[in-house]
Design brief:
By secondary structure, the protein is of the alpha+beta class. Helix content is 63%, strand content 7%. The protein contains 13 helices and six strands. The strands form two sheets. The protein has a four-stranded antiparallel sheet with strand order 3-4-5-6. A two-stranded parallel ribbon has the order 1-2. β3 and β4 form a beta hairpin. The protein is elongated and about 65 Å long.
Length: 286
């Protein structure tokens, strides 16, 4: 089939998405799966142009069905190679973002993070105090760039995808932490994650202390006693490992669980099933 005739068929199938007949809908979806990846660019273009939310959702689900196996293979390959540092975690989370945005190009968001870090790179470099360097980055992320927690729609999937958190500048504690960690990596600053139950935290490791930071509260520094009080208040007996630096593989698993929970809240069983497959891969090989 020529490129022009293929394009015409895809456009015709897109228009048939409005057909109320369930059999027509089933046939359209089947044909899109047969065409495969070739249909994605046109589908994505039409999705960005349409103003109808129901149509956007239908097209998103079709793109998801077409691309899921490839995303699964790519994610599996990344996990198999290992997720044991911040660079590898960043790439794994951007690949996970393709689960929600299959046409995403990871390098585009790596460049966005490069650009953000370059804006304060010289200030960080010329500040001798390691603690002041920490304060400069936290001030930059949470005050100047205005990254913040989304308490209004906490469980929305947008808050759990790294690309959308970077674009919208709001999200879950773990994703806000990821942004700081990845900027910190570019600036040689020791920001890491803390896999505390219920509420993910940041850690800044100096030669003589580990500083805990709440990313959901504008980068506020908190004490270990405050964290223990929070855990006890929520029915959890604090343990030492709750407030230690987390492995990157553990962080990836928690990110997938957050996404799975978000889609479960929305009743999207197809996405929940897909995320369960990703979770099994991450837990098995992490």
């Amino acid at each position: 089939m020529s490129e022009s005739s293929n394009k015409k068929e895809i456009e015709s199938l897109i228009y048939l998405l409005d057909d109320p007949d369930p059999e027509v809908q089933t046939g359209v979806q089947k044909r899109f799966r047969e065409i495969g990846e070739h249909a994605v660019p046109l589908l994505d273009q039409y999705r960005s142009e349409t103003v109808r939310s129901s149509e956007k959702e239908s097209i998103s689900e079709i793109i998801y069905q077409i691309t899921f196996n490839n995303i699964l293979d790519e994610f599996s390959s990344i996990v198999e190679q290992g997720v044991s540092n911040r660079r590898q975690l960043e790439y794994a989370l951007l690949t996970l973002s393709k689960f929600g945005n299959p046409t995403l190009r990871a390098q585009d968001y790596q460049k966005k993070l490069d650009k953000l870090s370059s804006q304060i790179g010289s200030e960080i470099a010329y500040t001798p105090s390691i603690t002041e360097k920490m304060q400069i980055l936290l001030q930059y992320v949470f005050r100047e760039l205005r990254f913040r927690g989304d308490s209004t729609e906490y469980h929305h999937p947008d808050n759990a995808y790294l690309d959308r958190v970077i674009d919208r500048r709001k999200g879950l504690p773990i994703m806000l932490s990821a942004v700081v960690m990845f900027l910190g990596r570019r600036l040689n600053l020791p920001f890491y994650g803390v896999n505390m139950p219920i509420h993910f935290m940041l850690m800044y490791k100096t030669h003589n202390q580990d500083i805990l930071i709440d990313p959901f509260d504008g980068g506020t520094i908190v004490t270990y006693n405050q964290c223990c009080y929070f855990l006890k208040k929520n029915g959890i007996e604090p343990r030492q490992e709750h407030l230690e630096k987390a492995d990157e593989a553990e962080i990836l698993v928690r990110c997938i669980r957050n996404l799975k929970h978000s889609y479960a809240k929305n009743g999207n069983e197809q996405r929940v099933d897909g995320l369960q497959k990703l979770l099994q891969i991450a837990e098995l090989r992490g």
